[in-house]
Amino acid sequence: MRIKLSDLPFGATAVVREIQTSAHDLNCLGLRIGKELKMVTKQPIKGPVVVILGELEIAMGLETAEQIVVETGVDR
Amino acid sequence: MTEGRADLPEGGTTVLMLGNPNVGKSALFNRMTGANAVVSNYPGTTVDFTRGTFIEGGHTYTIVDVPGTYSLEPRDAAEEVAVRMLRDCPDATVMIVLDATKIDRGLYITLEVMERGMPCIVAVNMMDAAHEKKITVDIAALQRLLGVPVVSTTATSGEGVRTLAEQIRKAQVANLGGIAKRLRGEEPRTESLRACGGCGGC
Q: A39, B105, B119, B183 - which has most CB atoms within 10 Å?
């Protein structure tokens, strides 16, 4: 199922399928299409979102997370 | 050691130390120059550049510790410094520092630097942290793929730093077309390699 990264529940894993914002800004941080990530922190009141990709922990604004499409339930 | 926006370079070969934030550039810089640049365990410690010198094989190198950056399209003041340094020192050699535990992220800026056509050498730093996390890095394969010298280092213990200093003179301009071909398996992996595995004989 494809959802916005901002809708990914805490602790859930998903695979990045689409980046609708500046792909360069996220790519250079290590977040690329096809990468598996895990939601580790979601802050209330439209606070930042933190995901973990392997050894990498990436924090981003909620607006950025809303523009990343991820797929859940992918068997790896 | 001098700090600030002093005119560059001072003589010899200028080596720009570049890489993502928090990969140990300043620690490596201190190891190589005997300087005392501020080192801490969080990103963004170096916001201006620091310069030092070292002599290896009778040749003087002016080494510049550049603030960490994720890409060459700057998004903050520290990243702008890094990009400006590259632009202002077109004849410099670039030492790209990677975190051995986060190689894939470091390779993004590695390729961006290589696109600029400057001679490069890659230091895979924090090897001790990689060992602890049971991460192995195939240094020889990375060197064959990139076609520039790749040296593994642990700045905190000094491991590999001597080799890194010796290999700087072998830094070379990467052939991006060759890298793409090798990735597709179209070219024998050893053919375009001019930087050898480090016998020191050339």
A: B105
